[in-house]
Amino acid sequence: MPSSVMPTPRQSDAPQVPAAVSAVGLCKSYGDKTVLDGIDLYIPAGSVFALLGPNGAGKTTVVKILSTLIGADGGQAQVAGHDVAASPDGVRAAIGVTGQFSAVDGLITGEENMLLMADLHHLSRREGRRVAAELLERFDLTDAAKKPASTYSGGMKRRLDIAMTLVGNPRIIFLDEPTTGLDPRSRHTMWGIIRELVADGVTVFLTTQYLDEADELADRIAVLNDGRIAAEGTAEELKRLIPGGHVRLRFTDPAAYRGATTALPESTRDDQALTLRIPSDGSQRDLRTVLDSLDSAGIEADELTVHTPDLDDVFFALTGPAHVPHQTEETVR
Fold this sequence. Notes:
Elements: E1 19-30, E2 33-44, E3 48-52, H1 59-66, E4 74-79, E5 82-83, H2 88-94, E6 95-98, H3 110-120, H4 125-138, H5 154-165, E7 172-176, H6 184-199, E8 203-207, H7 211-217, E9 220-225, E10 228-233, H8 235-239, E11 246-250, H9 254-263, E12 268-270, E13 275-279, H10 284-296, E14 303-309, H11 311-319, E15 327-332
């Protein structure tokens, strides 16, 4: 399905929460290659925003512009109320950035990494040690604090990386693919850390290749493709952009099957498998309509399965050629 026909979910008419990050018309090119072609963003304070896109789509470029590491060629952006071009120092004082690759120095201990970061933030020696100890404890690194960081596992290094980012008490954190390369247990640990940060009022800007990660964490998701935002919304809003959701009914009694085809004339039949497929958005209302039709006819299906598009379907539809739908299933027997 071409991305050009896929609408972006409308924003609510309710009063908007103050923006932690906003951008209008951000553009960036490298030579004759356009990486960003007019990006608009609005990220409410205290929320998790996930930016999805294929490799090379420009996700890291967006992070670099918003964190003042590089300049945009056009457009405007504000972070924590500061213009990224006119007031880069104000932006840097309000944010923390954790990239795809750890900034941890493996030659020194975890504690020394933390104290080095405290020095960079001009904390006093006493305050720096207090903050370092608190964060090491918060991220379950106290026992490893005196060990060289080179001995840490990937998950431990990533936790130390985020702990170092928090030394300056940032209110906005950019996490550029923070769980890449981590095992499933470490990924879930990182998810818990992100949730704790948001519970403390921190705004998280997350780029990720993991669609389940965005589904699990993000309040809003934007899909970046060919330098533009192809669609934006909550996970559920994005899933509703993709057709193909349906309810599947299976019968073992041919008579019940024939009765169901009459009761549900809009269904697609498979006479050999004794199954019916009814278009549905997966909502409770749609499901109740199907069940009420069966009840009215005195028919009971042997199996009912709800098929709903997931973020994989959204991602493939918006960022590449047509793929075979990868739908989640929920079966009621």
